[in-house]
């Protein structure tokens, strides 16, 4: 997710367009650059209108920008494509939980009697890029506390559907899957963008993705995360990568081919 680095203003607090937590070279990030300042001006105006924070929750389409809405519609579209397929849902890199909890709520709505659960993986330390990716993304960006996310999940009685796993996604998946060997997924969402993380995730999630299931990629072919494109090229060459014409990110997805 490149829209913004961390949390911005809370309700009632005015904010400017936030600093970006990533490097721009002016390819993909340039396409809608002219909309950025007017968008944030509008956010400022809304935050100054005195709405009750509960209004922002209950009437969210009145406030949320179309770009954010498009992202959630893409998650819905991809989720719908996996309905009826066996497996859980995994998200690698959960941050504040918006995508993870979107999937948990879709599961509640569309699979009321299935055992499908959403497993969110994160080390809850934010992004800490290696030296070779330090120029791309800010150290410490996208930090969120595990405790607050757990509390958010509990407050919505989602803790039987949404499970959090605190681990380093650049190295800890083999030990995790040794312990929970039965886990199989129908949908895996990668949202870290860092080469080592994406590489390790594809290595260990791909074999656990049900054929016909979907690997959803937030950053492929995006200038802010070349490591994601590189890892996909290395580990999954020659597969069709589709995209959504109505959203900027996720940038792509792969339907795992059937064997034979
Ligand atoms: C871009 S944010 C995820 C955004 C989220 N999917 C969403 O839709 O709002 C990236 C997340 O990856 C996590 N992360 C970065 N490196 C990691 C690593 N080595 N292991 C586990 N999590 C990592 C960060 O803590 C952060 O929460």
Automatic annotation (TrEMBL):
Report the InterPro entries cross-referenced here: SAM-dependent_MTases_sf
Q: Which GO terms describe its molecular function?
A: methyltransferase activity
Alphabetized, the UniProt keywords read: Methyltransferase, Transferase
Tell me which EC number(s) this protein carries: 2.1.1.-
Kindly state a single biological-process term from the GO annotations of this entry: methylation
Q: Which Pfam families match?
A: Methyltransf_24
Keyword ATP-binding present in the record's keywords: the answer is: no
- Stated name of the protein: Class I SAM-dependent methyltransferase
């Amino acid at each position: 997710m490149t829209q913004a680095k961390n949390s911005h203003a809370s309700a009632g607090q005015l904010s400017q367009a936030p600093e970006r937590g990533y490097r721009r070279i002016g390819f993909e990030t340039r396409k809608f650059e002219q909309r950025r300042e007017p968008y944030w001006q509008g956010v400022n105006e809304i935050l100054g209108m005195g709405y009750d924070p509960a209004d922002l929750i209950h009437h969210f389409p009145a406030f949320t920008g179309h770009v954010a809405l498009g992202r959630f519609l893409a998650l819905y579209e991809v989720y719908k494509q996996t309905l009826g397929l066996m497996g859980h849902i995994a998200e690698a890199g959960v941050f504040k939980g918006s995508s993870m909890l979107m999937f948990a709520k879709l599961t509640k709505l569309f699979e009321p009697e299935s055992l499908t659960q959403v497993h969110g993986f994160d080390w809850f330390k934010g992004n800490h890029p290696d030296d070779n990716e330090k120029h791309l993304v800010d150290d410490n960006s996208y930090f969120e506390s595990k405790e607050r996310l757990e509390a958010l999940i509990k407050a919505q009685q989602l803790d039987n559907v949404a499970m959090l796993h605190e681990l380093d996604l650049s190295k800890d998946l083999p030990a995790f899957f040794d312990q929970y060997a039965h886990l199989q997924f129908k949908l895996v969402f990668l949202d870290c963008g860092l080469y080592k993380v994406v590489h390790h995730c594809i290595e260990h999630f791909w074999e656990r993705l049900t054929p016909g299931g979907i690997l959803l990629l937030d950053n492929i072919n995006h200038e802010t995360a070349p490591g994601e494109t590189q890892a996909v090229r290395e580990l999954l060459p020659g597969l069709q990568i589709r995209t959504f014409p109505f959203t900027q990110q996720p940038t792509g997805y792969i339907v795992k081919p059937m064997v034979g």
